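Box 3.1 A note on notation
Throughout this textbook, protein chains are presented in two layers. The first layer is the amino acid sequence; the second is a token string describing backbone geometry. Keep the layers aligned when reading.
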Amino acid sequence: MAPLPPVPKALQFQLFYSDGSGAEIINNIWFRYTQSCSAGDLQTLCDEIMTQYATHFAPQVMPNVILEEVFGNDHSSPTAPQAGNTHAPVPGTSTGTNSLSSGAAFVMSNLGNMKYRGGHSRTYIPGIAIGGLQDKNTWTQTAQVNALNGWQALWAAVIQAAPIALGVLARVIAHRYGRTSTSPVLTADSDLPSVPLTNPFTEDIVAYRTNPQVGSQRRRNQQTG
């Protein structure tokens, strides 16, 4: 399979979590920068994500869910740097009781200015305490506000601490697939498979929105039989 085209000035960070059940939990977070990025800058950001997560978002997460690693990848070219964190793993510090299943998640939508059908950017966050539920499928307003505030504070702090060499750093949505190779917009035929874009691009995140419904990540349950 041919590699996907580069995404100019785009950094992807993969956050790897464990929850004591053997489930593989990964969040993909994208940034854009305006100047240059070295391997050292990328490692600094990986460590900074771990540090700021411990401060701003771990209090929303159950102790059994641990942010084990952050891996950074500059998608600007096939030879752009990659790096991982040197920070110790970060467990959640919530005082809540009991956890949801490995397949359950808090859904945070990433909002941009583009209007299109299908494939909107979301992050499925693990580890919010079962005490944050209003009923079996709905988060309380308090849980939503706390998660939103922590999420916003986490990424604002990472941006504030970014190396100067990067220039302006911003959270973005990465557009790498579309209805055709030249159009990211899905029209009436949204059931058709997407294809890689010839010229991938990023779109600034202008806001985050919480989903009051509990999200489902069924592949995390590792069912067999």
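The first helix runs from residue 39 to 56. The first strand starts at residue 10 and ends at 18.
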